[in-house]
Design goal:
Elements: H1 21-25, E1 34-39, E2 54-60, H2 62-71, E3 77-80, H3 88-100, E4 104-108, H4 114-120, E5 127-130, H5 135-145, H6 160-184, H7 227-248, H8 261-275, H9 281-288, H10 292-304, E6 308-312, E7 320-324, H11 326-340
Parallel strand pairs: 1-2, 1-3, 3-4, 4-5
Antiparallel strand pairs: 6-7
Helix pairs in contact: 2-3, 5-6, 6-11, 7-8, 8-9, 8-11, 9-10
Length: about 350
């Protein structure tokens, strides 16, 4: 149950009244629930206290949330509602306090503000993005963000949320193995998914990933495009044609029957790479052809697996791009070369 007496009643500039660790946990110490701080209007909170191992520790307004996070003795999850309405300075402060406290962040935002909000959250923060999320999406995000305290192994009945996470992880592992095998056919490629190259200090925000080199997305005049660019354009057309064919199936069969967001995103990023075009987070969500929250979960998983990388927009610090890691790009190139043989 939620401890109502630790919830901020005013929802103004003041924050929740943080209580000592023992008071937050109650009489049970080992295996206690992960404390969660909800940031936003009280009416926006959907009671998730029934979820095993997660409990609401308090509710705070955005203006006082950063100080509240720093004052609370233990906090595992920070849930930020309507992030698109939070001022940039406040959002930066919340992210900084979340990272300092080692908390996991669940961030709800509107699709039209996704690129701005995603760019404002540092890559070093473990974040789950939610866009037009349903109850199942919220449970999946909570299950991914919660912690089991004191290394206690809990025998919890597996629900739909955990099953979805398992299927997602298994699918990413399968794709990683496939791309690794394709790359290995030539005797091994540096940066292939099966064994990523060590990162340099300048890429510390991208653990386990291969940073894509800086690229000039400006198109070259057609009359001066070398033969390699001509081949790239032809390959890009073939990839786009494959994506269109995949979308055409949805006119005749239910869309979820063939849902394969990881592959759709890989194809879209590969085509964009060949076209020398950047891909924003929101654009990649659309290309995945699944609900935005599901696509965001896939993007995070593929990034953690080293298949995708984040790239800052050199012209707009409020936006980031998603690109293929070099190993994934090489594997896809060999896959299409094999198809053309």
């Amino acid at each position: 149950m939620i401890d109502q007496d630790i919830i901020d009643g005013g929802m103004g500039a003041s924050a929740v009244h943080a209580r000592p660790l023992a008071a937050l946990r109650g009489p049970i110490a080992k295996g206690s629930a992960s404390p969660l701080l909800f940031i936003g209007p009280r009416d926006d909170w959907s009671d998730m206290a029934s979820l095993a191992d997660v409990r609401l520790a308090g509710i705070a307004s955005p203006s006082g949330a950063a100080d509240t996070i720093r004052r609370m003795p233990t906090l595992d999850i920070v849930w930020l509602a309507a992030a698109e309405t939070v001022e940039a300075d406040m959002l930066a402060g919340i992210c900084a306090a979340t990272e300092e406290g080692g908390c996991n962040l669940i961030c709800e935002t509107a699709l039209e503000a996704l690129d701005r909000v995603a760019a404002a959250v540092p890559a070093s923060v473990n974040v789950q993005f939610l866009v037009d999320a349903d109850p199942a999406d919220r449970l999946v995000a909570l299950a991914a963000a919660r912690r089991t305290r004191d290394w206690t192994l809990n025998d919890v009945a597996r629900g739909d949320a955990m099953e979805r996470i398992d299927r997602l992880q298994e699918e990413v592992a399968r794709i990683s193995r496939l791309l690794g095998d394709l790359a290995a056919q030539s005797g091994g490629l540096p940066g292939a998914p099966a064994g990523f190259a060590p990162r340099g200090e300048e890429f510390a925000d991208y653990p386990g990933q291969v940073r894509a080199p800086a690229r000039d997305y400006a198109a070259m005049p057609r009359s001066f495009v070398p033969e390699e660019r001509t081949l790239d354009r032809q390959r890009a057309k073939a990839v786009r044609r494959m994506l269109r064919q995949r979308r055409m199936r949805e006119q005749y069969f239910p869309a979820d029957l063939f849902a394969d967001p990881a592959w759709d995103m890989l194809l879209d990023l590969y085509a964009a790479r060949l076209e020398r075009q950047p891909v924003s987070v929101s654009s990649l969500c659309i290309a995945a052809a699944v609900p935005a929250t599901t696509a965001l979960r896939w993007i995070k998983t593929m990034t953690d697996a080293g298949l995708f990388v984040r790239e800052a927009d050199p012209h707009d610090g409020r936006r980031i791009f998603i690109a293929l890691a070099e190993g994934a790009c090489d594997a896809l190139a060999r896959y299409f070369e094999a198809l053309e043989e």
